[in-house]
UniProtKB/TrEMBL annotation:
Family matches, as HAMAP family: MltG
Biological source species: Neptunomonas concharum
NCBIfam families reported for this sequence: endolytic transglycosylase MltG (TIGR00247)
Coiled coil: none
Name this protein carries in UniProt: Endolytic murein transglycosylase
This protein's UniProt keywords: Cell inner membrane, Cell membrane, Cell wall biogenesis/degradation, Lyase, Membrane, Transmembrane, Transmembrane helix
GO cellular component: plasma membrane
Pfam family, one: YceG
Molecular function per GO: lytic endotransglycosylase activity
Length: 345
């Protein structure tokens, strides 16, 4: 009996020693830097995966070398059911503990997609498709009208409806979700700026202001020029003068535009040819950023009625046709460029 008791005590002490050693070893492992079998930049926790499936994936990719310790620690901390799906950036200085906490935090890698100022909706669609390695592509088989319906837009034409900004998205985000966010951002911004607008502007609706903003966006990329150019076009509208802006002609030509505008193009009527139509074109002609909308709703209306590109990205503004023609000769005709921003006399 005493021998059995002694054996039990010895076994208990051995078990306690082993347990203590394992506990200490687990703590050392959990708090030590990851030992990666090969460089890893990111890791994806699949949606709907169990913790055991996660462990197998971590071990299979050489990130966790002692999965049992990892599981015991997660279970003791009651974190095994709090892991969130997503793509996570892996740092070789991370520990198994910090890796688990990262999975629990849900702070997954953000990928960024930019809608470029002045781009068309067709170009936006093409750019989204190029991110098929990151985004879930849902738009490829949809028409423009179907896309507008899917995002809840009441408008019938997609141009100009998506705010030209940079949007963060997790891997697996749908391209449709990007457009929804962009559309809502555009609507919110336009609504806010419309309420603060100068009430004397020749716009019947916020959409008119968006049309003007798209023209301004295509005319200049120089921030300080945007309100000035908007002022030129507002002044033309106020005095009943045609807008006569080349970007609208180019947009109306569609695929027929091959890099140059001819006199015939300027005289050929299209819904967007502001050399032949009165007032604004029927829709925006490009995506716009916040600054262009701000300029359209807060234009600097002064003496300027004409402007011409200098060739360095900026423009020469003129109050009279005589001065404008002089500027055209100085800046445009010498370079034999066809782009004028306003008609020749």
């Amino acid at each position: 009996m005493k021998a059995l008791l002694k054996l039990s005590v010895v076994l208990l002490l051995v078990a306690m020693t082993v347990a203590y050693w394992l506990w200490q070893d687990m703590n050392r492992y959990i708090k030590s830097p990851l030992v990666l079998s090969e460089p890893v930049s990111s890791f994806i926790v699949p949606k709907g995966s169990s913790f055991n499936q996660l462990l197998m994936k971590l071990e299979g990719e050489g990130i966790i070398t002692k999965p049992l310790y990892f599981k015991i620690f997660a279970t003791l901390e009651k974190l095994s059911h709090q892991v969130k799906a997503g793509e996570y950036r892996i740092d070789e200085n991370m520990t198994p503990k910090s890796l688990l906490m990262l999975f629990v935090s849900g702070k997954s890698v953000q990928h960024y997609f930019t809608i470029i100022e002045g781009s068309t909706f067709a170009q936006v669609r093409q750019a989204l498709e190029k991110h098929s390695d990151i985004l879930a592509i849902e738009l490829s088989d949809k028409s423009d009208r179907e896309i507008l319906e899917a995002i809840g837009a009441k408008e019938l034409h997609p141009e100009g409806l998506f705010l030209a900004e940079t949007y963060g998205a997790e891997r697996g985000t749908s391209d449709l979700d990007i457009l929804k966010r962009s559309y809502r951002a555009q609507q919110d911004l336009l609504r806010s700026l419309w309420e603060k607008r100068n009430k004397d502007l020749p716009y019947a609706t916020p959409y008119d202001a968006l049309v003007m903003a798209s023209i301004v966006e295509k005319e200049t990329a120089v921030p300080e020029e945007r309100p000035v150019i908007a002022g030129v076009f507002v002044k033309r509208l106020n005095i009943g003068m045609k807008l006569q802006t080349d970007p609208t002609v180019i947009y109306g030509m569609g695929d027929k535009y091959q890099g140059n505008i001819t006199r015939k193009d300027l005289r050929t009527p299209t819904p967007y040819n502001t050399y032949t139509i009165e007032g604004l074109p029927p829709t925006p002609i490009a995506m716009v950023g916040p600054e262009a909308i701000q300029a359209a709703l807060n234009p600097e209306v002064g003496k300027w009625l004409y402007f011409v590109a200098k060739g360095d990205g900026t423009h020469q503004f003129s109050a009279s046709l005589k001065d404008h023609n002089r500027a055209v000769r100085a800046y445009q005709l010498k370079r034999k460029q066809s782009y004028r921003s306003t008609p020749e006399s």
